[in-house]
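Researcher: First entry.
Model:
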Amino acid sequence: CIRHLGPERAKLTARCAAETADDWIVGFGMGGDEMQGRQDDFAYSFDMAHEAGLHLTSHAGEWGGAASVWQAIDGLRVVRIGHGVQAIEDPALVKELVAREIVLEVCPGSNVALGVTKTLATHPIRALREAGVKVTVSTDDPPFFSTTMRQEYQSLAEAYDWTADDFRDLNATAAAAAFCDEGTRGRVLEKLELP
């Protein structure tokens, strides 16, 4: 669902997803402007999707601070967070993300372009990884930010001296966090040449 379309539209989307949940519809998430509406307003939709067995994800912690990540993991019961970088502001939250193995889908290029962080060098992705938080790298909106995964990885390699091992770890985390069946996950890991 898209947050700025409101809770009523989210309920319609959740109902549709819940009624058609199968091998093709396996997750429910919320994107859009995280400053529009409170996450609690969408809890009913997430409850409906959860009861249908769908995996849950939501944008949080890009602009809404660490509190929005807490709201997403406690109020919406998500297992993945889109962005989530402001979690670094709250050490207790970082520990909770590690304990619950909640994955952050981090979009460094987008975060710099939008001013969430001033530069890649000051981006919290490295600190989050070093704290044990599971992170993946995403492009956010490739046409809008004029980026690709190759460019995102290249930028991170240059900023942090990350090696092929770092990117294998990020890819393995992404495959493990994917909302897919084990057969598909195995094929992805095989293509990535990961165990």
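Researcher: Second entry.
Model:
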Amino acid sequence: MSTQIDAYAAVREKLSPGANIYGENSEDFGRAALRWSQYKSPNFIVVVEVATEGDVIETIKYANANQIPFLAYSGGHGAIAGLDNVQKGIQISLVKLDSVEISETGTTATFGGGVLSKRAIDALWKAGKQTVTGSCEVTSLLGPGLGGGYGLLQGKYGLISDQFVSARIVLADGTVKNVSSESNDPDLWWALQGAGHNFGIVMSVTMKIYDVPKDDIWSFESYVYPQDKVEGLYERINTLWPDGSQPSSVINTSVLMHNPGIDAEKPILAFIVVQNGCQPVESIYTKPFRDLGSILTQSGSGAYTDIPGWMELDEKSPVTMKLGLSGIRFPVNVQNYNLQAQREVYELFAKETSEIPELRNSFIMCKGYPVHGVKSVPSESTAFAHRDDNILIAPVITYDNKDNDPELDAKANEFGEKLRRIIFAASGQKELHAYVNYASGGETRENLYGFEPWRLQKLEALKKKYDQEGKFNYYASVL
């Protein structure tokens, strides 16, 4: 208790009037520290909701002087083993830093470090602009961006991080740097685009933005399939879009999950095709999936801002909410779907979620986002190493573990790893590539940051230069 009180008082006197500070016994502490996943979550004695850059600097300086670990928080969706190494720490919450400022030229915008995707999308949309954002409305913009950041418009423009023009970052010692491709720290700039969470707390980032086309329209068609359509679905996807060849205007995503309203016993497959520039989705992309024979088919049209709702990833969707559950993700990138593996995954998912009902809320995402824009950026130009991959598959093991049962955590991890091993073994790939923003914590550095020795050597050298004491080691450290 005394540690909490001392930290509370000492930090409070250094903060700006707009900042808030919550001790662990305060009324708002639980709300401010709540995360999307409780698995391996950090432990805090104080939450500081900063309002200025100076608040971040002073909080870091206090933490360093008193050997207290600290961790930045924006959307709160980071979930990885290692975060639990933060014990009796200080959470630096960036939620008040949610500004969006469009430049006079209309070609860039500067986003505060705590801005959420929905706020960024809506602010740009009002000005007739857009940029690459993730599909989930309630994650932060920069959290995923610092790990590369897959996004809905990546087929046209590349990753979220490929839009970065410059950034302002507070380093581990509380000093501030402005970095860009033209700054005197080109290697740090390189690292921010794919491994950025290892090097500091980003106060703001300036990104490229784009005009929303006149009369812009997006359309979707979605399907629900029973278990006997597994091979048929993924065979059709492979045939339509082999080797990542789908147009930049087309997105497809499938989810394996339980939906007792449709099937009380067996998992079902939900699949959606989204297309930009036409109404409805062109028949070349819908007829194969209609002919397969779905339980339920829906379609519609609207704006870019409607896509998260179609995908059930908007702020009203339970899967995006902070409900006190545990969620562990096991990402693996592939080039095409292996039909036998997809069947094995289905059968294992059905078996395990039946035998371990606590895991029944789990699901498996298969993201077929267009990759032309991602692959157009030279791989060596940023720290994001997996540009040549086409599809992201991610089992998401979801369960209620408010009692912190280690056996249930172990079962969840074993389940997720089994699923990932099936997918990877059938891929024919020698290297397992894993999306760092979905990492479980069981991956190697190579899985997350690339197998080329020069990449890891460069990241290690930068880590020693900018974070020698490992203040930012808690999320997928490059060391």
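Model: Note on the second entry: The two ends are 34 Å apart (CA to CA).
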